[in-house]
Amino acid sequence: MTQGKVDALLGIVFGDEGKGKVVDYFTPRYDVVARFAGGPNAGHTIIFEGKKFVLRSIPSGIFDEGKINIIGNGCVIAPDLFMAEAKELESAGYQLTERLHISRRAHLILPTHRVLDRAYEAAKGKNKVGTTGKGIGPTYSDKAARIGLRVGDILNNFEAKYQALKARHEQILRDLNFTDYDLTADEEQWLAGIDYMRKFHLTDTEFEINRALAEGKRVLAEGAQGSLLDIDHGTYPFVSSSSTTSGGVCTGLGVAPNTIGHIFGIFKAYSTRVGSGPFPVELFDETGNTIRHIGNEYGAVTGRDRRCGWLDLVALKYAIMINGVTDLVMMKGDVLDAFETIKVCTAYTKDGETVTEMPYDTEGWQPVYETLPGWNTPLTEVRSEAQFPQAFADYIAYIERATGTPIKIVSVGPDREATIIR
Ligand code: IMP
Fold first, then answer.
1. Suppose 103 and one of 16, 34, 73, 309 were both cysteines; which one would form an S-S bond, judging by CB atoms 3.0 to 4.6 Å apart?
2. Tens of pLDDT along 316-331?
């Protein structure tokens, strides 16, 4: 039997590329859908059978009866938030316990990790990362420090391990003089979440995935956040704390590099970023506001305004290189419908120096733009490539040329039918 492959679907800029919209297209093609990094800092908005769901930790194959969904070892999981997310799906009629399997090697986010997240942010003053406050950084820090609690710990002498790590966190909070917290309600829900998790398959998902591949099954690795938030390759220190790029698929699921097939890199026809950190293409003017308003660019997890700008080819090309993207997926083309002209950032400049490759530090660089004609026609009714206005077809061809990568899927509106496969 031919060995199955792992395809990856990755946000390749700053996250929020709208993966939820194309899940309909992707999940039916796979037998297993797996998350390999991150945790409830993600928020994938998915509209299924007319109902809106925000998935944070649960893979989006959960809506498809026949699929196995896996939360891989590279993920971090908050039992209370997981329980709330899962119960919402259960009350909408989805059966979860048989189809959602959680790696025993995934790490647990404790209530005190969330307090530490806030305490570390407060201590940073004006250099705040602008985290989602979900305890992501402190949990991955404990993982790297080899003191973290894993899902597998739930099954074995859990209470003592929990109390020991919590005490350690409380000591750090005392050292930081951080007193602005009350764990009581949080902890109660969290412990209820731990109990709730016991009814799921808490397993060695690495074996499960590799067995599936050996049987010729197809696996979709579903990314979270974006490549420029990767702990190694992102705009450090303004990043998340996991490996969000394709390398993270291997370490976060326990699959070998030679099992990887297609790497779908998803991006928007323009740029956005949530939280702090350098963002050379950010627009502070009316154009930025218009993109935010038309694109509904407000955070799914935190509700924050997203920072908006034109497409950044310097960032896109870098992300394509780091991930080895084989196929691009361009979202939200219709958001640019109203513009007479459209700009694309082709280089950065600072102090007389111009670069086309992503610099070590993106702080202080100014964008160099090329201006292209806009299509200035509504795209939302477009259902096939033949209906593309010429200027839109030219925009796509321009990006393909500049990146050397084909754009295989183009989304031009919120409807399912507004996803065009090329
Ligand atoms: P953390 O992951 O909560 O530690 O946040 C670190 C940075 O990543 C902050 O700038 C967040 O706004 C950003 N971030 C984390 N998760 C997401 C996401 O799913 N979409 C977009 N930005 C995110």
1. 73
2. 999 999 999 999 999 9
